[in-house]
Amino acid sequence: MEFIDVKAQYRRLEAPIRARIDAVLAHGHFIMGPEIAELEQQLAAFAGARHAITCASGTDALLLPLLAWGIGPGDAVFVPSFTFFATAEMVAMTGAVAVFVDVDPVTFNMVPGQLEKAIDAVLRRNASAHPLPAQALHRQLTPRAVIPVDLFGIAADYAALLPLARSHGLLTLEDGAQAFGSRYHGKRVCGLGAEAAATSFFPAKPLGCYGDGGAIFTDDDTLAALIKSLRVHGKGANKYDNVRIGTNSRMDTLQAAIVLPKLAVFDEELTARQEVAAHYRSLLAGVPGLTLPTVPTHCTSSYAQYSVLFPSETVRDHVAAALRGQGIPTAIYYTTPLHLQPAFAHSNYTAGDLPVSENLSQRILSLPMYPFMPEADIAAVGRAIVHALQQTPPSHS
Questions:
Q1: What single string gives the DSSP state of each residue in 34-85?
Q2: Residue numbers of the domain that contains 333
Q3: CATH number of the domain enclosing 295
Q4: For residue range 232-267, what is the model confidence (pLDDT) as tens digits?
Q5: Cis peptide, bond prior to residue 334, ω within 30 of zero
Q6: pTM of the entire predicted model
């Protein structure tokens, strides 16, 4: 059994993907070829944004808006602690300070009330109001931006987050790397009104290419032009007119050619993902010792992951081992919250600072999930989980 079967998707789309690749091989424009502009136009229309700017990876899609906004040393950027490392890593890459915020125990997304406390704590340099990194205590930082994450396919609470951020003069960068295709109050992720949004086309993502790739979305014409310059070495009128310090972050034309036929059937695959999730729920709802994902009624999820919770780390690890013994792969997203990662040890966060993030990392397990996953495989996962929980020693439950 595959955790994510990208080969199954390729078998369904082999003919149009090969045709697109062959077209690129024939015209030979491997860098910024016509497929790039075509994909950007279609992505913007899909998300409901004025601009979509492709780039080399989802990580760069986070970095480029931060660079365009001039965020750097002396600035504070607020990020959830329970997410992939790149969200905070790109903040650190600019020289700014990542201030970690705890998440909701149901959606796993940033809690607006905790964000407000964190902003106030930075402004007052008061760690008793909210845990702060050491850098925020040693000097006065300027709150500049917030990066909410749409974790596992569920959009963060933008109805609360956007007004809160703007009331404090913060820019919002939506990290939609795991949620492209999801909806929030009827609108698509990456088109929800943040100053900028980012997504990833890593192969395991809901809309994946066959390498690395990403995109930035914005309604701001000036920001879009600046990001387009930054992704090509600070390009001005031409590639040898360098008007600012930038980077090399162009998406390969071949990757755009692969994403285009996938985007054409993306809505069908999103429906299929929700059907897989519904099948899991029909098998596992009400199972003692198991908490299933909850999608708020105003959201739809792209189910980048199907992540369940167990009562404890011991039970989680027991179930994972039992599934592994039956050839069923699982994954833990994430074993360590960001505020406790070794790379941020200099920030002097300690265990207990962000209790929800820490608790989730000990109890979470992600199950196989991909469009058109065979019902027999879903049933096998369900049976294995139920059996493993029944075999869990009472002292471990």
A1: HHHHHHHHHHHHHHT-SEEEEES-HHHHHHHHHHHTT--TTEEEEEESSS-T
A2: 267-389
A3: 3.90.1150.10
A4: 999 999 889 999 999 999 999 999 999 999 999 999
A5: yes
A6: 0.96
